[in-house]
Specification:
CATH topology: Rossmann fold
Number of domains: 1
Distance between the termini: 41 Å
Structural class: alpha/beta
Helix content: 25-40%
Order of helices and strands: EHEHEEEEHEHEHEEEHEHHH
Number of helices: 9
Oligomer: single chain
Shape: globular
CATH architecture: 3-Layer(aba) Sandwich
CATH class: Alpha Beta
Largest sheet: 8 strands, mixed
Number of strands: 12
Strand content: 15-25%
Length: 268
């Protein structure tokens, strides 16, 4: 007798039309920055939710300005997500104190993911953005088993040491039959404040060649700007803090590119 396929248990989240997984394979490349600014940019045209699936190191509460806020509970014991900038969002950081460590094994992660997916009143959403932790482990596998993911995007910085882990993330999504829409190059360059010329902060790796070889889109390049980090620390991401800035415009362009690709075969 053949073993049951773990992906046969996938069920849609009621009211959620598309799930976009934001991954990286590697920490420190700005995946959460991309996730929250992508969600905010998409929310100008669509209904969007944001789920922080980084159980061990949640950053959404601080980056969204919702630190210390707790979700409500309905009469049917469902979680009411925090709302900020018109976006429903949930994070382990909304359930525990910021300094508290989550010391859990895999089964507890599985249960937490299930609660975020099934026991949160997400409402009607065109897109649910899921900000994943680094790596290719329990959380990514659980998400792929639980729900049909519309597409994944992978965030990297320019150098090959970051691309090496993105390659693993792309391979992981392929193994669990999740389509990867493309790559986002974060901190791709910095604009010289004197003459406006692009300056490379990292050695340029083989991202273009890898994307071409695997038929992946280069969805966008995000420049490094200290203001992105400062606005994130203040809980007002760059898309909200300075929407006309070049960096915010890059996120708006990224959102349009992803939405156009996802919706080209759908009718929202």
């Amino acid at each position: 007798m053949s073993s049951p396929n773990p992906f046969d248990s996938q069920t849609k989240i009621a009211g959620v039309k598309n799930i976009i997984a934001v991954s990286s394979g590697k920490g420190g490349v700005g995946k959460s920055t991309v996730s929250i600014n992508l969600a905010l940019a998409l929310s100008k045209k669509y209904s969007v939710g944001l789920m922080d699936a980084d159980i061990y190191g949640p950053s959404l509460p601080r980056m969204s300005g919702t630190l210390g806020q707790k979700p409500g509970i309905t009469e049917t014991q469902k979680l009411l997500p925090i709302k900020r900038y018109g976006i429903p969002m949930i994070s382990m950081g909304h359930l525990i104190d910021e300094e508290a460590a989550v010391v859990w094994r895999g089964p507890m992660l599985y249960k937490a993911m299930d609660q975020f997916l099934r026991d949160v009143t997400w409402g009607e959403l065109d897109f649910l953005i899921v900000d994943l932790p680094p790596g290719t482990g329990d959380v990514q596998l659980t998400l792929a088993q639980k729900v049909p993911i519309t597409t994944a995007i992978c965030v990297t910085t320019p150098q090959n040491i970051a691309l090496a882990d993105v390659k693993k993330a792309v391979d992981m999504w392929k193994r669990v039959s999740v389509p990867v829409l493309g790559l986002v190059e974060n901190m791709a360059y910095m604009l010289n404040p004197v003459d406006g010329q692009k300056m490379e902060l990292f050695p340029k790796g083989d991202l273009n060649q890898f994307a071409k070889a695997h038929n992946l889109k280069l969805l966008g390049e995000i420049a490094f700007n200290p203001m992105i980090g400062k606005t994130s620390e203040a809980g007002i991401p760059i898309v909200e803090a300075a929407p006309s800035s070049p960096e915010a415009q890059s996120f708006f362009a990224l959102a349009d590119s992803i939405a156009d690709s996802v919706l080209s075969t759908q009718n929202l």
